[in-house]
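User: Can you write out an input/output pair for a complex, sequences first and structure second?

Assistant: Here is one pair. Inputs:
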Amino acid sequence: MPELPEVETIVRTLKPQIQGKTIRSVRVLLSKAMQYGAERLSLISGARILEVSRRAKLLVVGLGLAAGHKKVLPLARGTQPDMPGLSDLPDCLRDADLLLVFHLKMTGSFFVHPQGAEPLPHTRLVFDLGDAGNLFFDDMRTFGYCRIMLAEELPAWPFWASLGPEPLGMSSERLAAHFAAQFAKKRSSIKSALLDQRIVAGVGNIYADESLFSARIDPRSKAGAVPSERLLALAEALQAVLRQSIEECGSSIRDYRDALGNAGAFQNSFAVYGRKDEPCKVCGYASLQGCKLSGRGTVFCPVCQTHFE
DNA sequence: TCCTCCCTGTTC
DNA sequence: GAACAGGGAGGA
């Protein structure tokens, strides 16, 4: 389940394989995998891949269209730098003619296969890169998607427009202050708040549980009840966990692989995620407790983690 | 603010 | 053969 560190790892491993390459054509093997902009597929033929980047859990590919295709675009080029909703988009992507925006959801993955390779059972999209091979978008559970978008359309996409800040894009003190301001209005649990992409972008089930354990906060605590010094601990813990996971190329549980087919290593550092009924690595308490929050499996140590009500 | 649904492969 | 994995949309 690619969260921020896994998507970041995929960007880093995919980029050197496809940047600068030209897309000859695209095959759509599952129509719902092309969620938006499918009528623009023909424009992509001959497009050059300018950039591969990330925002939240989304992987964004910037394209420069072939000369004959540019004039077909419905909107005039050139974005205002202060356009709301675009402030988190790297400059190199604002300048692209067209964007491919991917959400990998639980099982989306990329792999560059040799030219002419046959699709696999879960291959949903194939980008023919000519001599550079075929880029496969595989997705067993078919929750993932690709959107073909103009940068100008991003602010009108509700999901994009609602995304909160990048947790690694600011100091831990500022992140803590942001948490304090956002959590104060919430009646839900602090874990639900961490998973809320409108509050902070890119955190999923793994890093929510791990950061709350590291900050010694019970995930069932009411978000607004956690004292500010604990929110600083949480901000520091979240950033540390995300940075360490990126360093270790993400967490490989079940099927996650980067764009070179390699597994990450951060799963070996899990303190609580997936360790229900196992002993706490810090206090030795015999069996970590499990519960459901926001419909997500949650694991925590009832001894180490303080409950705030 | 919470629940159900989407989807398929793995585990019990 | 049921339970489980879970991000986000949509509905209660």
